[in-house]
Amino acid sequence: MAANGERDRPWVMRTYAGHSSAAASNALYRRNLEKGQTGLSVAFDLPTQTGYDPDHELSRGEVGKVGVPISHIGDMAALFEGIPLAEMNTSMTINATAMWLLSMYEVVAEQQAQAEGRDPAGDVAKLSGTTQNDIIKEYLSRGTHVFPPGPSLRLTADTIAYTVARMPKWNPVNICSYHLQEAGATPVQEVAFAMATAIEVLDTVRERGEVPQEKFGEVVARISFFVNAGVRFVEEMCKMRAFVQLWDELTLERYGVQDPKHRRFRYGVQVNSLGLTETQPENNVQRIVLEMLAVTLSKNARARAVQLPAWNEALGLPRPWDQQWSLRLQQVLAYESDLLEYDDLFDGSPVVEAKVAEIVEGARAEMARIADMGGAVAAVESGYMKQALVASHARRRQRIESGEDIVVGINKFTSTEPSPLTADLDTAIQTVDPAVEKAAAEAVREWRDRRDADPDKKAEVDAALAQLKEDAANEQVNLMEASLRCARAGVTTGEWAHALREVFGEYRAATGVSDNVGVGEAPAGSTLAAVREAVKQTGEEMGTHLRFLVGKPGLDGHSNGAEQVAVRARDAGFEVVYQGIRLTPAQIVRAAVDEDVHAVGVSILSGSHMELVPEILSGLAEAGAGDVPVIVGGIIPESDAAKLRAAGVSEVFTPKHHDLTTSIGHIVDVIRERHGLAPLH
User: Fold this and answer.
1) CA angle 320, 322, 328 (to 5 degrees)
2) Is 262 a catalytic residue?
3) Residue 434 pLDDT more than 90?
4) 153, 217, 533, 583: least surrounded by Cβ within 10 Å?
5) CB 609 within 8 A of CB 578
6) Distance between CA atoms of 519 and 521, rounded to whole angstroms?
7) Among 72, 558, 609, 658, which one carries the catalytic annotation?
8) What is the greatest pairwise CA distance in the chain?
9) Of 53, 55, 123, 556, which one is the catalytic site residue?
């Protein structure tokens, strides 16, 4: 039994949610709280995450898709209407624009306090929650970075210094290894890269000197982590115990934090969405449960907050019922099982101790390698960390293709009964009304017009933005105060980010798709050998070398799939053109024409395919390249896939097409057909 003879308190239970509009998301949050959710986890749409208003060119097709659009203080107030922020624990998955969203969150809390006749400063001091604010992993895996590493780390450090002084219950940064695992990280890489990121952040805070050394323990105490848990739940549980051990050592030895409470490793988790399958999606339920056990079974390394994906996330946007199912999984474990009645189940286990020691040793070696390079930022700028992730992901994918790693329903046990869960695919997921984007664009234009029609308000907006740029140009000034002024003045997300872009510039991260990632030899008789021969023969018949463009249009930064397609196409003998993320359809068309490619592959996971792909098709036609086949990959419902094919797309690949080598072979077939060549088989 636990020492006090009582059950431990359950972890905070969240559901990662937000879509369409502030009002629609507010209604969803209220329903989830009524169902027993104990914290909020806000998903922002990609324009909000990357600092664009809904009417910006790059926002096309992205508004309200993967999260809620928040363009100004009015939207933030609507998002939390009727939800008392001083009593809520709110996690905000936001990075490049984290300071801005936190500023608006604080101003809404002040407004709520004033409306209730309370001291606003008192409510601000009670605010509890997290801004993810981990920009380094954005350069490596998620792709919602905006500014270069130096200014980005300054924004993070400024937020930390401000919250330690004004919002003592707030976690200003959430070192996020979740997306590192999705990008291919092994447990050792996930631990090491996260620790290296934490070192970079803490060193930056210490060097800026805003927090006195005697208060540095409070900084460390407010650093939390957000991790991934895969289906290998024993290894994943050992990974968490390794995290606990290394964090305690690091904060004591490097930063001299004496209070054990300050050194406690505090983390939240979303279990692995990457391993969820479109094929036999009902299997995802047991995957989610096993992954949840990895972060709850070991009391001494138990998550402080858990959010679970839904069974149908490989199909599209989950419905409220799907999210409720995932919440109930947590509640059954926490309240019906006896898990929380016992001390740690694994203390003293030689098996667990050996595995933890193995992960710790490997992580220390990797951390030392990164330190020798000059730290995490240097390892990002050199491309080392990104390349390591792409290579690890390629090895994992190859193990699945070869059958070395078994994925039930994908490469083994593939026969299946019809699933009632997916009998009607059009109703098995939630869709966002296309009118949402038009309404949001009109609303933000109306907000700016109405605001600027008042001379006093317009003057304050101009003054607030001028202060933001002036403060940004001065390395010694904390940018939170200027951001708060902008929030109160009614500045928009796009205006705030544009002002900082003018001072800091923008940044394009390394793609990791280097020549030494991938395989050299293709064993005789293998699928890769056959596809490689098809590429070679087709090129000889056409008198050229086959060239393939892989494009990432819009703001979708989930580049893992695109990178793996690029690597495998090159393995198969294609010359590959891959320019990274965040391209307009026009830029993709221009690259296809300039490089004279034989096929264009478009990767979209954010749901913007119906808006962006037709623009690419029409752009190619206008440029005289309408005969170049376009292949689309991503999380695409079958009804949308049919529409894309009808519009002229040659092939549509979704998560069920897990064998990339076979898919590359299909692309060769499409090229041959377009050029009037006889089929090879």
Assistant:
1) 100
2) no
3) no
4) 533
5) no
6) 6
7) 558
8) 79
9) 556
